[in-house]
Amino acid sequence: MNNPKKEETYWKPEGEQALDRSPVCFKVSTELKNELRSIPDWQKKLRASLPRLISEWKDLHDGG
Q1: Which residues have CB under 8 Å from 42's CB, separation 6+?
Q2: Cα 60 to Cα 62: distance, rounded to the nearest angstrom
Q3: In the structure, what pLDDT confidence band is assigned to residue 5 with cuts at 50, 70 and 90?
Q4: Which of 13, 34, 58, 61 yields a CA-CA distance of 20 to 30 A from 1?
Q5: Are 42 and 36 in contact (CB under 8 A)?
Q6: pLDDT per residue over 21-41, tens digit each?
Q7: What pTM does this model have?
Q8: How far is CA 28 from the centre of its chain?
Q9: Cα–Cα distance, 59 to 11 (Å, whole number)
């Protein structure tokens, strides 16, 4: 039987690129974890801040 809403059930990435299947994992204190998780859409906001962090690190360490 065909699903008339088939496209609606497919997962689609939020941004222009799909996310990698392998997560980046790191440990933080319980307090920091709880504070981070209290921020609405924290994962999306954290992903958005990473390019700036990487760029700043490169500027400091590569003589940018």
Answers
A1: 36
A2: 6
A3: low
A4: 13
A5: yes
A6: 899 999 999 999 999 999 999
A7: 0.67
A8: 16
A9: 36
